[in-house]
Write a structure and sequence with these properties.
The protein is mainly α and 92 residues long. It has one domain. Helices cover 71% and strands 0% of the residues. The chain contains three helices and no strands. The longest helix is centred in the first third of the chain and has 30 residues. The radius of gyration is 21 Å and the shape is elongated. The two termini are 19 Å apart.
């Protein structure tokens, strides 16, 4: 990557990270609202809480697997030899 665009790349990575955290938090809050509701979480709500955790982890797993598949299926989008320049400079 061109050094003049490193700031843009860093900002995009941070935006994706924060956006993913917000979506994940919203998903868990939605599941808690659906399965538990507006009650205090006590031992009687533990089965519903375990359901929320299981569903949230399952959805996260599906999103991770699908994202990995689509990332792998797009292939190498850079021309041959590109991206190896930085490792060659470090070695030499």
């Amino acid at each position: 990557m061109d050094k003049t665009r490193l700031g843009i790349a860093s900002a995009m990575m941070n935006l994706a990270r924060v956006g993913g955290n917000m979506i994940g938090t919203g998903m868990v809050l939605l599941l808690v609202a659906i399965f538990i509701g507006r009650v205090r979480i006590e031992s009687s709500q533990f089965p519903a809480l375990m359901s929320v955790i299981s569903i949230a982890l399952g959805v996260s797993l599906l999103l991770t697997i699908s994202g990995s598949y689509f990332s792998y299926s797009r292939g190498n989008i850079h021309p041959e030899g590109r991206g190896q320049e930085t490792t060659a400079k470090k070695d030499g």
